[in-house]
Hints:
The protein is an all-beta fold.
Amino acid sequence: MLHENVDYTPYEGFELQGYPIMTISRGKIIAKDNKFIGEKGYGQFLKRKKIDFFNVK
């Protein structure tokens, strides 16, 4: 279960063994026992620079 406000995730299609039992964000539990228990609006947008894939060193 992913809680993201975007139409893309880098995890799409990944097959893993095991299952997460808890998600912690900035020291607070935001998901536990397959339920979202965080606060709406707690997430933060982190602006990143665009990557020039042809000139990565």
